[in-house]
Amino acid sequence: MQDPAGSRSRWWGLGAMPAGIWAMGLGSLFMDTSSELIHSLLPIFMATTLGASMVTIGVIEGVAEATAAITKVFSGALSDYLRKRKVLMIVGYGLAALTKPVFPLANSIGWVFGARFVDRVGKGIRGAPRDALVADITPPELRGAAFGLRQALDSVGAFLGPFLALVFMAAFAENIRAVMWVGVVPGIFAVATLTAFVREPTQETAASGRRVPLRFADARRLPIRFWLVVLLGAVFTLARFSEAFLVLRAAGSGLSLGYVPLVMIIMNVFYAVFAYPAGAAGDKFSPRNLLVAGLALLIASDLFLALADSALLCLIGAALWGLHLAFTQGLLSKLVADTSPGDLRGSAFGVFNLVSGGALLLASVIAGELWSALGASATFLAGAAFAAIAAVGLLLRRQTPRPAEG
Hints:
This protein is mostly helical. It has one domain (16-203, 220-399): Growth Hormone, Chain: A (Up-down Bundle), CATH 1.20.1250.20. It has helices spanning 4-12, 19-39, 42-49, 54-82, 85-99, 102-105, 109-137, 143-171, 176-182, 184-197, 224-238, 244-251, 262-282, 287-307, 311-339, 345-374, 376-399.
C-alpha cells in the first residue's frame, strides 16, 4: 500500500530538498528581518524626521534597487568564472550587515542615500551567485519548489522585521532611531548561518567544471527563450514600483505612526505562506497561467490601494500585493534557471536582475512624480493599468496558434 503522506511529501519536495537550500533560506530570513525592520520605518523616517519629498524618496529607492541590479551582472559573471559562488554571496551579505548601523546614526538624507547605496551593492553582490547556487545544487524537477522555499523563508524574515518594528516602536515610545538599532543583530546571524552551513557543489557535480572567460560575447550563447524571460521580468517590474510607497500609503490611510509597519507585516505574511506552494506549482503547471494570475492579483491590489480611504482597504491591498509576489517571483527565477546554460547561470541571473532593476528605477521615479503631482490614487491606478496591459499581452500570446508542423 502506498503511503499518502509520503506521496504528498515527495510532491511538495520538502523531503528531497538539499540542506543548502534550507541554509540559504535561513540566511535570507535573518537578513530580511534586519533589512525590513529598518526599511519598514525608513520612508517615514525620511519623510518626517529628515523632511524628504516623495520624489526624493522615489529616486532614492529606485537608485538603490538599480544599483543592486547593476552589481548583480558583474557578481554573476564573476561567479561563473571563479566557480566560487559562496564567497561572493558571503561578501554581499557581510557588506549589507555592516551598513545597518548607519541608518539609526543618519542625520541627513545624504547619509541615508549612502547607506542604501552600499546596502544595495551588497545585495547585488550576493543576489546572482546565490540564485545560481540554488539552481546548481537542486535537481531540475525541484527548481520551482527550491526557489519558492528560499523565497518563503526570505518572506518570513520580511514579516518578522516589520513585526519587530511594531513591537519595539511601542516599547521604545515610537523612537525610530532606537528601533533601527535592533535591526543590526539579525544581520550578524545571517552571515554566520551562511558561512557555517552552505556548501559549494564539487566541480564534478556543478553545472560546469570548466572555467569560462569573462567575455561579453558569451551573451550570444544565451538563447532567445532566456531573453524573452528577461523582457517578461522587466514588464512585471514596471507594473510594480518600490514597496516604500506601500508604507507611505499606509501612513496616509489612517494608521498611526507606530502601526505603519503593519502593512509590511500583512504583505509578507501572504508572500511567505504562498511562495513555496506557488513555486512548487510552477514545477507542475503552466508558468503562463500562474503569471497571469499574479498580474490579476497585482491589479486588484493596486485598485484597493488607489481607493483606500481606510486602514482596512490599505491592508487588503497589501495582502494582495504579497500574493502577487508569491505567484511571480520564484517562478521568474525558475524560468531564468531553466532557459540559461549551466556555465553562464550566474551571468544570466545578473542580466535578468539588471534589466529588472532598471525597470524598477523607472517605475519608482514615475510613481514618485505621479504621487507628487496627482496624489496617491493616481500612482496606484497607473500601476493597475500597466499590469492590465501586461496581462492582456500574456493572454493574447497564449491564444496565438502555433504554425502547423511539416
